[in-house]
Amino acid sequence: MKFKDFLKDQLGLLVFDLTFLFVTISIIVLSPINEPLFDIIFYITLLNLTLLLIYIFISYFRKLKFFNLLDNGLISSNLNNLSLLKNTNEENLYLSIIKNYQNQYETMANENFNKFEENTEIMSMWVHDIKMPISIIKLIIEQNQSSYCEKVLDEVDNEVMRIENAVERVLYLSRLEDFHKDFLVQEVNLEKTVREVIRKYSKYFIAKKIKLELSNLNYIVLSDKKWLLFIFDQLINNSLKYLNTQGNISIIGENSKGYISIKIKDTGCGIKTEDLNRIFNKGFTGNNGRNNSKSTGLGLYLVKELCNKLDHRISVNSIYNEFTEFTINLKQNI
Question: Does 213 map to a domain?
């Protein structure tokens, strides 16, 4: 609290004191005593102003100390120490109101946290429950491959994979807040990780006749394999989603100053300049998403959040109707 602001709050007291001093001096001056009383007026004025200044400064520093303790108590969520001070009735009233609001806030926060934990647990159970029928459907498709219904089965398989990817995004989104509970830094082979994702989408590459280029990926980096696999999965899936038939996808690694840069580039529809700064925002689909009902705006948001938590850096470069290139920088050592 600034001294100037404190004086504004004490304006009523100052006006009353100076008015009372003026009235006292006026009475002395207008009294019928013939002798001059300038010495008395001077001493009265000096005494009054001295006592006023002492009161103002003591009040200011006392209130300043109270507000500092109050501020520290709010930050540390502990207002009990303030109760030990010799507070004025006004300060005790403020303290009582603040404690009441703090208790209400803590109760609401705990209730919301418990609801969040409960919803997260329900979400995880639902994801695991729905994974079972997905696996069964995929198994049925594999066991009933035949030439006369091959096209139908491929379409069903594509839709099942879309469901599986959506379920995975929901699962990873629910785990994002508890990332530290499911996190293991280890040496990860980038080439094996990328090829694992490529195998998952091999049917898409073949069906769309997409040319794939893999180059210089045989590096070992420090990361969490499961989360890194999900990051590559989302980026490659994103490229396939917006890539036309006979397009190109290149995944190239570069070694630079203790970092391994992985560039994932596709010759798809690209991203408009005005959308580039927002593609990692939660729920943002942009121009491409509005033209493609398959977009949810969660994939790239999760990629960005996971990269931040894994201490990886991700950036994007794109020219609309030409290409899109994502670059991930990963550390080789701690």
Answer: yes
**What's the total number of domains in the chain?**
2
The token pair at 4 is: 């100037």
Structural domain for 257, as ranges: 178-331
pTM (predicted TM-score): 0.64
207 and 322 belong to one structural domain? yes
- Domain membership of residue 164 (yes or no) is no
pLDDT tens, N- to C-terminus, the chain (334 residues): 788 888 888 888 889 988 998 888 888 887 777 666 778 888 888 999 999 999 898 888 888 887 777 777 655 555 555 554 566 777 778 778 888 887 888 889 888 888 877 877 787 788 778 878 888 887 887 777 777 777 787 788 778 888 888 888 887 887 777 776 777 888 899 999 999 999 988 888 888 889 999 999 999 998 889 899 999 999 998 888 888 888 899 999 998 877 899 999 999 888 888 888 899 998 887 776 656 656 677 889 999 999 998 889 999 999 988 999 999 999 876 5
Instruction: Give the pairing type, strands 323-331 and 259-266.
Output: antiparallel
Q: How far is CA 268 from CA 241, 247, 292, 321, in A?
A: 9, 7, 13, 7
Other beta carbons less than 10 A from residue 265's beta carbon: 19
Neighbours of 257 (CB within 10 A): 7
